[in-house]
């Protein structure tokens, strides 16, 4: 026992002596400025250590552990001993209950072939005279003929759509690398050509096959339907919310009486409980609710807001827009008030109209705030869950899973069906989709964001 106590005392004295020796050597051989920086960094990290510990236990560890469990069959029967199944959870998410009439290969390459053929035909019509090199002229003509022949015989020759689409993509990539598109100096003309190309590609031969494939596949896979409904909700709610928020912010930025009161009124829905908001809107959307009462008084017939599946996502979008528009309006208002007034005064001296001030001063200088709001609004829209759960009393829509979103799918898999491995896989697919959209927005917005400095 005494030997153990002596050992402990010896190790403590050795640690203390080592620390003192390191301190003396650092003061003697290291520059005082560098030593001070190291000391300040160590002190700062020691102050942050409790936060790192809390974040590590309650945030980082669950994130990494859930990703690890997404590769296991971890359900109610295998809670103690999960079974490693690799990517099977991810494959099961996109597995169709019954095969659809069209394959994804046909859908994707047919649409790609239509799009690329339209691009070559447009260049053949508008830009053939501008091309000086004969090789490029012959290349454009031959590729356009190849695309047209492929479209005419697309159902007669197997894999013709794949071969033709890939050839057109490769050739167009080569032409882009040779700065072929840069010969068109008129940006407006380039936009018109792009618009016509998209129109021909998507509507000249009817609805694209890839849209048919997705519309059929979402009825055979619940997770694909969740992605479809979530994307529909994001595209419907996010632009409208941002547009209304900007309009409200522009009104509140004017010299109006009672601006503080209106700011508070617009901001109240954001801080109100989602449960209370959803219950109130449930009464508003009811068959005998306030909205149908107003419609009948005007002369319209009642609309089954909560009973028809085609109104599921729009009703949820209305609630979300009403709830979030005030919050984003306040952020827009802060961005508007940070714009220096001298820009507007100089524009008035030059005779600029109010619309020109908005176009050339407000929008460019408000672009950092707009970029932030777009990112935050899109991420929040992808995580919609509470409104659906309360509005439809714990069900994903009235019927046919019309309100099934990706977060609701994760909730249903984890809490209801006790299939935690698949729920983890679905959560990481959602994370990947949000990350992809965020990266695309950040890269596409670099040249459009203007800072005052």
Helix content: over 70%
> So what's the overall shape?
globular
Mean pLDDT, to the nearest integer, reads 78
Compute the CA-based radius of gyration: 30 Å
The number of E-state strands comes to: 2
- The residue ranges in which pLDDT falls below 50 over 5 or more consecutive positions are none
CATH homologous superfamily of the largest domain - what is it?
Answer: MetI-like
Computed structural class:
mainly alpha
* Strand order in space, largest sheet: 1-2
**Biggest beta sheet attributes:** 2 strands, antiparallel
Number of helices: 19
The end-to-end distance, rounded to whole angstroms, is 71 Å
Text of the CATH class of the largest domain: Mainly Alpha
**CATH architecture heading of the largest domain:** Orthogonal Bundle
Write the layout of secondary structure elements.
Elements: H1 2-29, H2 32-69, E1 72-73, E2 83-84, H3 88-93, H4 104-126, H5 134-152, H6 160-177, H7 187-204, H8 209-217, H9 222-252, H10 259-271, H11 274-284, H12 290-298, H13 312-337, H14 341-349, H15 354-365, H16 367-382, H17 386-391, H18 406-416, H19 420-444
Antiparallel strand pairs: 1-2
Helix pairs in contact: 4-5, 4-6, 4-7, 4-8, 5-6, 9-13, 9-16, 9-18, 10-13, 13-16, 16-19, 18-19
Organism: Petrotoga mexicana DSM 14811
Domain ABC transmembrane type-1: 227-441
InterPro entries: ABC_transporter_permease, MetI-like, MetI-like_sf
């Amino acid at each position: 026992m005494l030997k153990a106590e002596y050992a402990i005392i010896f190790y403590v004295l050795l640690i203390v002596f080592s620390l003192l020796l390191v301190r003396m050597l650092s003061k003697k051989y290291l520059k005082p400025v560098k030593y001070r920086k190291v000391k300040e960094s160590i002190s700062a990290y020691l102050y942050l250590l409790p936060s790192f510990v809390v974040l590590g236990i309650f945030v980082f560890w669950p994130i990494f552990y859930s990703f690890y469990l997404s590769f296991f069959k971890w359900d109610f029967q295998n809670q103690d001993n999960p079974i490693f199944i690799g990517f099977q959870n991810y494959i099961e998410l996109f597995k169709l209950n019954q095969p659809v009439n069209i394959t994804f290969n046909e859908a994707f390459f047919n649409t790609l072939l239509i799009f690329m053929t339209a691009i070559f035909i447009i260049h053949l019509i508008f830009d053939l005279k501008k091309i000086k090199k004969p090789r490029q002229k012959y290349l454009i003509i031959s590729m356009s003929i190849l695309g047209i022949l492929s479209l005419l015989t697309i159902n007669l020759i197997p894999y013709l759509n794949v071969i033709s689409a890939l050839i057109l993509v490769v050739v167009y990539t080569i032409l882009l690398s040779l700065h072929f598109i840069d010969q068109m100096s008129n940006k407006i003309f380039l936009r018109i050509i792009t618009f016509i190309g998209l129109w021909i590609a998507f509507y000249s031969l009817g609805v694209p096959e890839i849209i048919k494939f997705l519309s059929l596949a979402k009825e055979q896979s619940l997770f694909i339907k969740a992605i479809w409904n979530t994307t529909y909700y994001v595209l419907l709610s996010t632009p409208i919310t941002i547009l209304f928020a900007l309009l409200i912010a522009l009104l509140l930025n004017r010299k109006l009486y009672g601006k503080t009161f209106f700011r508070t009124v617009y901001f109240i829905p954001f801080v109100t409980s989602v449960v209370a908001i959803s219950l109130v809107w449930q009464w508003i959307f009811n068959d005998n609710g306030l909205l149908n009462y107003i419609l009948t008084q005007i002369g319209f017939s009642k609309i089954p807001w909560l009973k028809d599946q085609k109104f599921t996502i729009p009703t949820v979008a209305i609630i979300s827009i009403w709830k979030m528009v005030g919050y984003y309006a306040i952020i827009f208002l802060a961005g508007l008030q940070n714009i220096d007034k001298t820009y507007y005064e100089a524009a008035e001296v030059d005779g600029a109209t109010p619309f020109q001030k908005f176009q050339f001063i407000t929008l460019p200088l408000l672009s950092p705030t707009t970029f932030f709001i777009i990112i935050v609004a899109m991420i929040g829209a992808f995580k919609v869950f509470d409104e659906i759960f309360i509005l439809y009393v714990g069900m994903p829509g009235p019927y046919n899973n019309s309100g099934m979103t990706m977060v609701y799918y994760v909730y249903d898999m984890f809490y209801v069906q006790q299939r935690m491995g698949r729920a983890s896989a679905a959560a990481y697919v959602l994370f990947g989709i949000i990350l992809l959209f965020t990266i695309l927005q950040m890269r596409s917005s670099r040249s459009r964001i203007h800072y005052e400095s």
